[in-house]
Design goal:
The protein is mainly β and 426 residues long. It has six domains: 1-38, no CATH class; 42-119, Immunoglobulins (Immunoglobulin-like), CATH 2.60.40; 123-197, Immunoglobulins (Immunoglobulin-like); 201-278, Immunoglobulins (Immunoglobulin-like); 285-358, Sandwich (Immunoglobulin-like); 362-424, no CATH class. 0% of the residues lie in helices and 53% in strands. Strands 22, 24, 25, 28, 29, 31, 32, 35, 36, 37, 38 and 41 form a twelve-stranded mixed β-sheet that branches.
């Protein structure tokens, strides 16, 4: 049985007999072994001092029995494996990277040794520049670059790389997004830099459908220098950029075009976002008839309508005729069909959508009364599902009136007589 004598002189000193140790003023916690081991690990050396991935090295020091981890390099890459041989020796399998720094940890602490180990794998700390798009050139500076066989960005091989000297590599960036740079040689792989992709990027487009004259906004990054913006392969009428270089948005006005991808092209690269729905706006007077052309020639035709819940096939019933031909006829279309979209499947391929809108413009010429049908383009009064445009004049309303929308040109006025209401539903 061991006997322990404690002397309190400023700090606690512990003497134990038998296989005892003088430990000093430590906060001891584990009494299970009979010896009290409270020292953090100490490293003296690593042999060999130069090795590659998968090689075995020996760490020598003291207080290594409780080793919980061994780490290499500035980013603390864990060893592939380790085995404690004794309190003074640990056998370690070298990981894929980690030059210069070695760290060993136990439950009582950790210690780091510098400048005693060199990894035979490639070694670098940064890439210059850190921003780049597809085809941009970057340089890695470090060591052990002469036998590099692979360079990747975001896990994707770069377009090409050139070994400038044992300490430098130049590479041409791939189309991959932002991500880490990894370099491989026969002795290991190092991941130690990050490239921020500066190719133009489109995150969203609002709205995702439109017609000629509509303004659309594309939200994204690095869209500061577009040379062209196309929708379905057709150039837009006008575009302009708002916002900083990194997070910005592009406004563009639709011209005549077709459904398809929205594409931005410029010196910094090309990006596309799809699918944008281009539709043709068909303006009608309530109760008018219209013929909608398929716009393409084929052997089979099938017309569909979307009333707001998805497209569905239509047949020759009610107001429709020619539903299996190149021309769809709509007869005496009621204004309740406002916003209905039509498309035709031509040999299995859809044409651009055509959407119906009802508009009644003020033409005047027969006084200023809203209630006089002769003052309206359609020869009838606006309805609840009618968009109204008044380009000029001073119109008076002497009844309760309802319309979907009302737009007045500069200088035009509308006066509602007392006791009556003008209701605009949209």
């Amino acid at each position: 049985m061991k006997r322990v004598l404690l002397f309190f002189v400023g700090s606690i000193l512990l003497f134990s007999f038998g296989s005892s140790k003088l430990i000093g003023d430590k906060n001891f916690s584990d009494l299970s072994t009979g010896d009290f081991l409270f020292e953090p690990p100490v490293l003296y050396n690593v042999t060999p001092s130069i090795a590659g991935e998968g090689d075995t090295v020996l760490l020598t020091g003291k207080f290594l029995t409780g080793t919980t981890g061994v780490f290499f390099g500035d980013v603390d890459t864990p060893a592939h494996s380790f085995r404690v041989l004794s309190d003074t020796t640990v056998e370690v399998i070298v990981p894929q990277q980690g030059t210069n720094k070695l760290k060993i940890s136990t439950s009582l602490g950790s210690t780091t040794m510098y400048n005693n180990f060199t990894h035979k794998g490639p070694n670098f700390t940064n890439a210059t520049p850190i921003f780049g798009g597809t085809g941009s050139s970057h340089v890695l500076t470090g060591s052990n670059m002469s036998s590099v066989s692979e360079v990747k960005v975001s896990g994707v091989p770069v377009i090409s790389f050139t070994i400038l000297n044992p300490n430098q590599i130049r590479f041409i960036k791939n189309t991959a997004p932002s991500g880490p740079v990894s370099v491989k040689n026969p002795y290991g792989t190092t991941v130690a830099a990050y490239i921020t992709d500066s190719d133009p990027r489109i995150d969203s487009i609002k709205p995702i459908s439109g017609t000629q004259g509509d303004t659309i906004i594309a939200y994204g990054r690095f869209m500061y220098d577009p040379a062209a913006v196309t929708v379905g392969g057709t150039n837009v009428t006008k575009f302009w950029v708002i916002g900083p270089t990194y997070d910005n948005k592009v406004f563009f006005i639709l011209g005549s075009g077709s459904s398809g991808t929205v594409t931005f092209s410029g010196p910094s690269g090309t990006r596309s976002f799809g699918d944008f729905i281009y539709f043709k706006k068909v303006l009608l007077c309530p109760g008018a008839s219209i013929a909608l052309p398929a716009g393409k020639t084929g052997s089979t035709y099938g017309w569909q309508v979307n009333k707001g819940n998805g497209f569905e096939a239509i047949g020759d019933t009610g107001i429709y005729s020619g539903t299996s031909t190149a021309t769809l006829n709509l007869n005496a279309v009621p204004s309740t069909y406002y916003g209905y979209a039509y498309r035709c499947s031509i040999d299995g391929q859809y044409n651009d959508q055509q959407r119906i809108y009802f508009r009644n413009n003020w033409v005047g010429g027969s006084g200023n009364s809203w209630e006089n049908p002769a003052n309206w383009q359609c020869g009838s009064l606006p309805e609840a599902n009618t968009d109204v445009f008044i380009p000029a004049g001073n119109i008076t309303i002497n009844s309760n009136v309802v319309c979907r929308s009302l737009r007045l040109a500069t200088g035009a006025t509308v006066t509602v007589a007392p006791g009556y209401n003008l209701t605009i539903t949209n």
